[in-house]
Design goal:
The chain is mainly α and about 375 residues long. Helix content is about 70%, strand content about 0%. The chain has helices at about 1-15, 25-30, 45-75, 80-100, 100-110, 115-150, 160-175, 175-180, 205-250, 260-300, 305-330, 335-340, 365-375; strands at about 190, 195-200. Strands 1-2 form a two-stranded antiparallel sheet. It is elongated and about 80 Å long. It starts with a helix and ends with a helix. This is G-protein coupled receptors family 1 profile domain-containing protein. Keywords: Chromophore, Disulfide bond, G-protein coupled receptor, Membrane, Phosphoprotein, Photoreceptor protein, Receptor, Retinal protein, Sensory transduction, Transducer, Transmembrane, Transmembrane helix, Vision. InterPro entries: GPCR_opsins, GPCR_Rhodpsn, GPCR_Rhodpsn_7TM, Opsin.
Length: about 375
């Protein structure tokens, strides 16, 4: 009842007095807000409270889900493989992004920013590391799947190689996270309802447009191109390999050249590849709205942008951070087995592999086994 009374009172106050965006925001903070956002009326308090409520759900689901992923992948010996280090790193990146949600939640229920410019910069810094880092992390996972499935004779990635890849991922994310934070190139500014912050894509000058175009290519186009390249290679390789198997079996007048072990290995690797492709698809879903808003503001007709529209991309990103860990629960065989052992009440039912089966993430695939058969 008390909450309903508060909402009614807020709505009545909103109806009786039309307020401009930033009405309860300090002048020193408003100096960082682009004039375009100041032309809009303040959103209905109900929108603030609704977004705050959804972010509480996002925060709980993402922190719990990614926390379980990190816990199981690091505590289970059979899952502590070099390839799965990339999975843990992706979960850490999602975990870090959701650590900033308390800033937004408090801002939403305050109907404006509480933590000032430092809170704004911290919020955007964590988001930038997650966005750019997860993009390249997905590309690294795609490369690992490509190498495992399409080039099995090259051998699996070593722990040292994956460690260097993870260091490179964080190094890749650093320039366009730190430079705006320090104001070296670009800057972090409030956006939309002024309760979130991102890099400046509204200022109408050549330097800002060049920054927006550069970060778009750096953090979106390049990772997406790598994802498309590696996964298309996987599809092509699998298709060609299946055709070779069928032709060879036809010549030998047999139904199939695969043993049960080969079939199980194929099933495991394909399921893991499906997880990786799903993660890549979620990456596109999460960050394409941000790319659209930023490019429209910098190069297009910004009149179509509203504060509410600029809040949609952030919701997409948080939603994807919630979904990512459950992708493993659905499709990763070894992860499902460990989840079943450690959390039996979670209603996961995964059949244990036979002793002859290759463990998930070992780097051995059905293709390598069949290659030996066909060459012998």
């Amino acid at each position: 009842m008390a909450l309903n009374s508060t909402l009614v009172a807020s709505y009545d106050a909103f109806r009786s007095e039309k307020r401009i965006m930033g009405w309860n925001t300090p002048d020193d903070y408003m100096s960082h807000v682009h004039p375009y956002w100041k032309t809009f009326e303040a959103p209905n308090p109900f929108l603030h409270y609704t977004l705050g409520f959804f972010y509480i759900i996002f925060m709980f689901c993402a922190l719990a889900g990614n926390g379980v992923v990190i816990w199981i992948f690091t505590s289970c010996k059979s899952l502590r493989t070099p390839s799965n280090m990339l999975v843990v790193n992706l979960a850490i990146l999602d975990f870090i992004m959701m650590m900033k949600t308390p800033i937004f939640i408090m801002n939403s229920y305050n109907e404006g920013p509480i933590w000032g410019k430092l809170g704004c910069d911290t919020f955007a810094l964590l988001g930038s590391y997650n966005g750019i880092g997860s993009a390249m992390n997905n590309a690294a996972i795609a490369y690992d799947r490509h190498r495992t499935i399409s080039r099995p004779l090259d051998g699996k990635l070593t722990r040292k190689q994956v460690t260097l890849m993870i260091v490179a991922i964080w190094a890749w994310a650093t320039p366009f996270s730190v430079m705006p934070f320090l104001g070296i190139w670009g800057r972090f500014v409030p956006e939309g309802f002024l309760t979130t912050c991102s890099f400046d894509y509204m200022t109408e000058d050549s330097a800002t447009r060049f920054f927006v175009g550069t970060i778009f290519v750096y953090s979106y186009v390049i990772p997406l191109a790598l994802l498309v390249f590696y996964y298309s290679k996987i599809v092509k390789s699998v298709s060609e390999h299946e055709k070779t198997l069928r032709d060879q079996a036809k010549k030998m007048n047999v139904t199939s050249l695969r043993s049960n072990k080969d079939q199980n290995e194929k099933s495991a690797e394909v399921r893991i590849a499906k997880v990786a492709i799903a993660l890549a698809t979620l990456f596109v879903f999460a960050w394409t709205p941000y790319a659209f808003v930023a490019l429209t503001a910098a190069f297009g007709n910004r009149a179509v942008l509203t504060p509410l529209m600029s809040m949609v991309p952030a919701c997409c990103c948080k939603g994807v951070a919630c979904i990512n860990p459950w992708m493993y629960a659905i499709n990763h065989p070894r992860y499902r087995m460990e989840l079943q052992k450690k959390m039996p009440w979670f209603c996961v039912h995964e059949t244990a592999p036979s002793n002859d089966d290759t463990s998930v993430g070992s780097g051995t695939t059905e293709m390598s086994g069949v290659s030996k058969e066909t060459s012998s």
